[in-house]
Input
Amino acid sequence: MKPLTRRATMQAAAAVATTGAAAHLLARPALATSPSPAEAIADRPLFGAELRTLPNGLRVAHVEQRRAPVVAHYAFVAAGGGEDPKGLSGIAHFLEHMLFKGSANVASGEFSRRVAREGGSDNAFTSRDVTGYFQHVEASRLGLVARMEADRFASALLPEAELESERQVILEERGQRIGSSPRAEFFETFEAGMWGRQHWHGRPIIGWEDEIRAIGHADLRRFFRARYAPGNAVLVVAGAVGGQAFWDEITDIWGAVPAGPAVPRDRAPPPPAPPEPRMVRNDPRLRGEATFVRSWQAPTLTAGESRLADPLEVLRHLLGGGQGSRLHRALVEPGLAISVGAGYDGETASWGDFDIALTPRRDVAPGRVEETTMAVVKRLLDEGGPTEAEVARSIRQMSAGALLALDGLGAAPRMIGGALAVGLPLETVEFWPRRLRAVTRDQVAEAARAVLGSAPTASGWLLPEGVDAPAEASL
Output
């Protein structure tokens, strides 16, 4: 299951807010003297979470939400695909699968069956930064799922007899997600060319096929013992529970898990230059439109010039954040591309990337599309950054997403747990709108110069067979 980051949540919600029924939240009369809802929310915590650390080192965040008699229970391990050892890519994801194979007090497969019998749902996901396990159940069943989750964190069996069958499941999953999709295969290869095939950022989260086949039972047990410790985990509970009774129950259940320390992430710095700065792939399976991508190495809140992270969020939106963005106006509105977008996530462990990706129309020459795309970037740099109006518009639209994010039961656990697990403070999520409103035009311009104008970059084309790639368009 794809992890939901704070950026993705806010971005999706902002799109709804500015195009649908929630657009009125942004409207302000010309002579208004009080702040709009989007502005007012910047002055208080988004979720009002309470954070405590249990004696065994487990950090627990609690968000009381009484909209419905349900609860979300999310356990995060501060280890994802980025922590896979060289030569064993995919081991974090493989271990995620194996944690459903039973523990000291729960038989293999019984975890999900018990949750389903209670009318709830459960699942898990692996991202580059975390592995997460979650359940949504009726509020009175919190104790049940907490006991089962704590049990497998403390005593997962990882039965060797089920290893090979699960390996085949994962290989089939890889084949469905990657092998059967020209675009997924292209982006996987592009990441490896941008960062390096054995760089933590260049290895696929699901793993290279030959390395999935090489993962042994001892490797899984070693990774589990090293990483699945209370001090290296975060628990977030949101829903219709609260008070001292909640803390007593959680402390009694999760506090019994043997203590273990946090494990530092040993992540290599980005390469001085992409190993493959220009990638072109012609795929005979491609029946639809081509794909163009350009990526730059970028700092985040945890690596490099962290002060640029929030301005880069604004830059992403004004450059490629849907209708009204510079790239949309230059490429989609004139009919050169079907879609275009920019991507960036500052809440990651270590370095990240700033991306532009687009799908040109079939009857438009790839060279024209790439030249137009890079001309938009060049114009932004030549003009000394965006306008004040563009920055204000982006901040307003992104802040609107914060209002809608409050309603989803899973939003708070994923946003809070993801941030805490990469070493960021709770305030990173709770007061994100306030930080966003503090971003200035000059800061966005500086971020654009530092990343789009100076950082190592790579570009790539995925094209149908027989279509020639254009010469690279430079700034």
